[in-house]
Amino acid sequence: MIVAGPGTLQPRLISSFVGNCRCRQSTQPLHDIFRYNPGSLTVNLCTIIVQRQMIKPDLGVNLVCRNTDELPNSTRKRLKPGKLSPRRPVPDHILKPPYVASKKPPGITTGAEVHDEKGMECMRASGKLAAQVLQYAGTLVKPGVTTDAIDQEVHQMIIDNGAYPSPLGYGGFPKSVCTSVNECICHGIPDSRELEDGDIINIDVTVYLNGYHGDTSATFFCGDVDDEAKKLVQVTKDSLYKAISICGPGVELNKIGRIINALADEHRYGVVEQFVGHGVGRLFHSDPVILHYRNNERGRMMLNQTFTIEPMLTMGSIHPIIWDDDWTVVTADGSLSAQFEHTILITENGAEILTQC
Ligand SMILES: [Co+2]
């Protein structure tokens, strides 16, 4: 298949699940930090690929875990890791993506996901299931509920529907869903932490059904959430829908980042740069890279193509710090972060949101 998109992932691919690498605060341009280097690459779940050597030397400067519990101007406590439950089994009859059995980190493929009729139907089915699971997961969000309990329910519902929870075993990710609470930007691992009144939590669901991934996330309120946090969540959601509204065949991909960044600017929110949207379909992560911030990257949307848009907006710092678990990404200053995500299909008339109930 000939692909005209931003075409190649080189030299700076990013995708939406990272791991085994550390992010850092930097004054360097993003492209320097995230230059793609096949030799030094470790890919993980959802959002980046980084050149590890460039990242590691700064580890000592930017604390991976901070000692201070309190956050400035807030009664909220910093997020801390909880305990993980054992890995949940998946029945033999469920079709598993190839990366599950492989010991190697998942690779990145440079082809766009452009589908024939059958492929589009499969994408609609996996997108719909992902949306249903996400909607159900949202009903579980209440004070006192652990993120592990949400993982348990999500895992069971996906399996009951004959699908595989895509994050489980992707690059070593230990759970079936990502739960990112408060200052967690993305890739939070479900654990023993109980949700608290006033928390916000992003739940990111990806299912693998009949050989196709559907990927979606939303940020939910736990109990009584303050107005500032509510507004961040609403603007983040609005930015996703605004971006989707301009999509269509031949449209430049960089319009997505421009429209999201413009809305964030209006409200003085930050746009996280290191984690991006991605092609999705037969592969969990592929071309194109979808940048959510203002950029001039080349590449256009193609008819019958599927990819995600998944902006992460913050109230303060956009700099990510990754915990020792190699997954959990939090804002450097502990400020809140919200995210919404849909898988979309480029149609003749624009874009169809596949991850809708
Ligand atoms: Co994604």
TrEMBL record:
Pfam families: Peptidase_M24. Keywords: Aminopeptidase, Hydrolase, Metal-binding, Protease. It is an enzyme of class 3 (hydrolase). PROSITE patterns: MAP_1 (PS00680). Coiled coil: none annotated. A divalent metal cation 2 binds at D215, H278, E310, E341. GO terms for molecular function: initiator methionyl aminopeptidase activity; metal ion binding; metalloaminopeptidase activity. Residues 121-348 form the Peptidase M24 domain. The keyword Chaperone does not apply. It catalyses: Release of N-terminal amino acids, preferentially methionine, from peptides and arylamides. A divalent metal cation 1 binds at D204, D215, E341. Residues 72-108 are annotated as: Disordered. Substrate binds at H187, H285. The keyword Hydrolase applies. Binds 2 divalent metal cations per subunit. Has a high-affinity and a low affinity metal-binding site. The true nature of the physiological cofactor is under debate. The enzyme is active with cobalt, zinc, manganese or divalent iron ions. Most likely, methionine aminopeptidases function as mononuclear Fe(2+)-metalloproteases under physiological conditions, and the catalytically relevant metal-binding site has been assigned to the histidine-containing high-affinity site. One of its GO terms (biological process) is proteolysis. InterPro entries: Creatinase/aminopeptidase-like, Pept_M24, Pept_M24_MAP, Pept_M24A_MAP1. It comes from the Eukaryota. HAMAP family: MetAP_1. This is Methionine aminopeptidase. The lineage of its organism: Eukaryota, Viridiplantae, Streptophyta, Embryophyta, Tracheophyta.
